Amino acid sequence: MLINSKVTGRALTIGIPVYNNEKTLAKAIESIRNDSEVDYKIILSDDGSTDGSWDLCAKYAAIDERVEAIKQPTNLYYNNFRFVLDAANTPYFCWLAGDDYFAKGFLSKAIATLEEQVEAVAAIGTCLFYHQDEFIGEANGSYAIIQDTANSRLVEYFSKATDNSRMYGVFRTEAARLSFPHKLFHAYDWAFSALTLTYGRHVDVGVNAIHRDKTDRSAYRKMVRKDAKNIISRLFPLFPMTSYLLTHKQINNTWPFFKSLFRLNFNSHLNYCEMFHPRYYKAVIFVQNEYASRIGWRFKRHLK
């Protein structure tokens, strides 16, 4: 089912993949509608919700011609993010989760920044994390990446990556489409952000961007198990993403890039094992600490 399919001539498309967001969806949509300076289009893609989410989608499409609502016949899972991106027909695009909302003024500021800085492919701002409506802190992943070369930008990204809140910035639509993985896997969104950096910089607009509901660590680890297709991708959740990037034509596989990915994979492996294999986790941490205190510093001194 599709409502308001002929909305064109806008500057920005906001794609909202919807799944059982009845309690939070209205706030998400209103955070866009309250930014009167933005010439936008909203695409709501309901992924088979079992609550009242679709009724809200249809309601907003009926009262606002800038809102398009689609009810998917089958559950798309991660592909719902691809669907709303593919449906965009504007020069700029961003995603908004159905349980998040934008900070006032961010969207207009982001578009103005991209208009001024033609070398940038994404405009991001500070992401604020919440849990059950309680503020818990700023995201560590929403920082500017403005190095001159694609490889240096990738190393900067993967050397500091702790979350991928930058995915909810405003992108040039063409770069976003070129960067979205052609196959899906756990942490496909990290691969997306990495590939956008091969096309240009991520600039910080200097304001709060989005209020996000932070995924609980236990829920995240369960997602890892759901996404894993084999034992390797279960124990090393970022391995499919890493394999995809290392064989991608846009990536120049230098040693600093490989090293940053290796470190990230090891840390995600420990994070997973901390919950599901605690004895192994404790043993690895013990060996790691022993190496750092007894051997590692000598090795580093020798290299100098």
What is the structural class? Answer: alpha/beta
CATH superfamily of the largest domain, please?
Spore Coat Polysaccharide Biosynthesis Protein SpsA, Chain A
Shape: globular
Q: What is the CATH domain class of the largest domain?
A: Alpha Beta
The major sheet is characterized as: 10 strands, mixed
Q: Can you tell me the CATH architecture of the largest domain?
A: Alpha-Beta Complex
Spans of at least 5 consecutive residues whose pLDDT stays below 50 are none
C-alpha Rg, in Å?
A: 20 Å
What percentage of residues falls in helices of 4 or more residues?
40-55%
CATH topology of the largest domain: Spore Coat Polysaccharide Biosynthesis Protein SpsA, Chain A
Mean pLDDT: 91
Beta-strand content estimate:
15-25%
- Count of beta strands: 10
Number of helices: 12
Report the span from N to C terminus. 65 Å
Q: List SSEs in N-to-C order.
A: EEHEHEHEEHEEHEHHEHHHHH
Task: Give the count of structural domains.
Answer: 2
